Amino acid sequence: MEPSRNDLEALVYEKYAGDPNAEGIRADVERLQAGEPLAYVIGHIPFLGLSIWLDSRPLIPRPETEWWTEELITHIKTICRSGQSSRVLDVCAGSGAIGLAILKEVPDALVAFGELIPEHTTLIQKNIEVNALDATRADIRTSDLFDAFAGERYTIIACNPPYVPSKRTLDASVTNYEPSTALYSGDDGLELIRHIASEAPQHLVPQGELWMECDIENIHTARELLLEYGFPTVEIRTDPYGRERIVVAQL
After folding, report:
1. Of 121, 161, 162, 127, residue with least CA distance to 141
2. Rounded to an integer, what distance in angstroms lies between the CA atom of residue 2 and that of residue 186?
3. For 83, what's the count of Cα atoms within 13 Å in the CB-facing half-sphere?
4. Checking CA distances to 222, which of 10, 134, 142, 197 falls within 20 to 30 Å?
5. Among residues of the chain, what percentage have pLDDT more than 70?
6. What is the mean pLDDT of residues 177-196?
7. pTM for this predicted structure
8. Three-state secondary structure along the chain?
9. What is the pLDDT of residues 154-173, one digit of tens each?
10. What is the C-alpha to C-alpha distance for residues 116 and 91, in angstroms, rounded to an integer?
């Protein structure tokens, strides 16, 4: 597969400071030709003004995730202006992109990160450092969902969990390179979302909110699960492409 001109230009500019003759470019072009995602080859990806490094190979942040994270940041700023405290938990954090963007844009927010894979929690710490963010407002824990946050409650829980049904066929550039544990979640794609729906209410303050990315084909079932587990209000929102992508559940 031949890389696009845009990908080649981005590679040269982002990784080699614009030098098309730099050592290593040929090997990187071969990686692109084999189908490896550009973000992994470069080593980082932009996300709401941040440079998100991908050393431990977490899921690559997508534009739709960037979009709803920006919506969430606007909402959190409104909460802060009203005088409420803002404690945010980014669970299934991966690279930490969602929580890191909140840490950058909301100076009063305290942001916790929960991630199952220790290598990813180390990466989140690196992303805080390379982006010169305020580490004193960050709390990074290796955790299977909410296990490391027993008894703690947050204003906002933000989550981009695995949500792809296990039998669905994805593009080879995804399945051959990105972690399956960050993509697939049981036969219907809802295995992890069921756990989140059942446990999240115990980790939110009154009127707290869960913002969660879902699969466009099972998002209505995800909404019903959230209602079943005690959220009185669950709204479905569309992404920039008009697809139903986000659930916002409020206690």
Report:
1. 121
2. 34
3. 0
4. 142
5. 98
6. 97
7. 0.96
8. CCCCHHHHHHHHHHHHCCCCCCCCHHHHHHHHHCCCCHHHHHCEEEECCEEEECCCCCCCCCHHHHHHHHHHHHHHHHHHHCCCCCEEEEECCCCCHHHHHHHHHCCCCEEEEEECCHHHHHHHHHHHHHCCCCHHHEEEEECCCCHHHCCCCEEEEEECCCCECCCCCCCHHHHCCCCHHHCECCCCCCHHHHHHHHHHHHHEEEEEEEEEECCCCCHHHHHHHHHHCCCCEEEEEECCCCCEEEEEEEC
9. 999 999 999 999 999 999 99
10. 9
Backbone angles phi, psi at 25, to 5 degrees: -65, -40
Cβ 183 vs Cβ 164: under 8 Å:
yes
Tracing tokens 């090997």 back to the chain, one arrives at: 27
Domain extents in the chain: 1-42, 58-250
Cβ–Cβ < 8 Å for 115, 94 = yes
Fold of 58-250: Rossmann fold (3.40.50)
The Cα 45–Cα 49 span in angstroms is: 10
Written as one letter, the residue type at 156 is: I
List Cα–Cα distances, 147 to 114, 128, 202, 213, in angstroms: 9, 23, 12, 21
Strands 87-91, 50-53: pairing is: unpaired
**Amino acid at position 171, single letter:** D
Per the CB < 8 A criterion, the answer to whether 111 and 136 are in contact is no
